[in-house]
Amino acid sequence: MPQVAGLGELSRLEVYRLAGVGLLPAETEDDVRAAWRSLGDDTLVVLLTPRAAAALGDLLDDATAPMTVVLPS
Predict the structure, then answer these.
(1) Residue 64 is part of a domain; what is its CATH number?
(2) Which tens digit of pLDDT belongs to each residue from 12-48?
(3) Which domain does 21 fall in, by range?
(4) Cα–Cα distance for residue pair 59/38, rounded to 1 Å
(5) What's this model's pTM, rounded to 2 decimal places?
C-alpha cells in the first residue's frame, strides 16, 4: 500500500497520481469504507474527497488512523 493514498471519486483524484499518490477509487459509501479498511499499516496520509470524508464519519476520529486531508469541494 502507498504511504500517501487518495480515497474517493476518481475524477477528483486523478491529478494526484502524477505526484505519486496511490489512488483508491471509491464511488459509493460502501466502497469508501471498504477501501479505508484495506489501508495498510504503512499508509501515513490519506487525501479524501469531501464525499469520502462524509462517508467515513466517526472512523476518522480513531487516533490510530492515518492522518487525513480533506480536499476542498
Answers:
(1) 3.40.50.10580
(2) 999 999 999 999 999 999 999 999 999 999 999 999 9
(3) 4-70
(4) 13
(5) 0.93
